[in-house]
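Sharing a chain and its predicted structure for anyone who wants a worked example. Both blocks are below, sequence first, tokens second.
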Amino acid sequence: MNKRLLLLCTTLLPVFLSAEATEDTDAACCCTPPTMEITWNANALTAAKFEEDGFTDQELRYAEAMVQANITHQFNDCDGLTWGVGGRYTDLKWVENPHFSERNFYDIFLASSLFTQRWDCWYWRAGALFAFDTDHILDGAYTKHQGLIWGRYNYSDCLGLHIGAMWGLGLNDDYVYPVLGIDYSPSCDWKINLVLPVNVSAVYSLNDCLDIDIALRRLKARHRVDEDQTLSRGIFEYRSYGVELGATLHIGPYLSTRLHAGSTGGGNLKVMDSQGSDVASYAVDGAAYVGGNLALHF
């Protein structure tokens, strides 16, 4: 099956792990999820120059796209289960890349999470996600696992406290990060999210249909390349952080869309061998980027 068709036909990855910088933290942790949700999002960066000596005339381009579908089953007034499927596409273009020529990478995802509001003033969510390279679905060396446990305490009508942890396994990259922060609404029009490393943003509601925001975004991709590459079964990780302006349009109760534009403060491409040992690390200049989200709720 054509890889692009496969990506469009297999929709994975649930909301609880998308970790977009512009997520509404309060909505993610306080409201019962919709019965079904289908979302699409994408980001594309302009060319970024390499900063390393001998590479300054070369450019790196990065783009990503994701499509996902989630279904929620509410057990009772307090507890429920969300499960999802989806796909992600990564495009890393470096024409003169001395390590690998592979450019396009496709993952599919399976995930589920449990949520509860059983304890007074608390909302908790815990879940896991498994990602598979579409060219190596049965090869565990290409598989990634992510997990999350996240709680929000409703301290007052305008203040929420967040605590939790997120972790990952696979591709020789095992990690655990704390989730800590607050969300604060100084008025009915303003919402400030400071929940690291998930959501750092300030949102202003112009009216019931339109919100504008400023947010931080983390861009990260980690993949293992094919056996036939110069660095056989090697691993790369691209990482950068950006600041963006966004606008979200709510079209009735079932559809919302967000467009954003911003700039990164530079980035890094790390290349490793098949065992995860460092081979090279390249710093790149900042780059402008644009992107968008589309969400359909049932």
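Comments welcome. Residues 210 and 249 are 5 Å apart (CA to CA).
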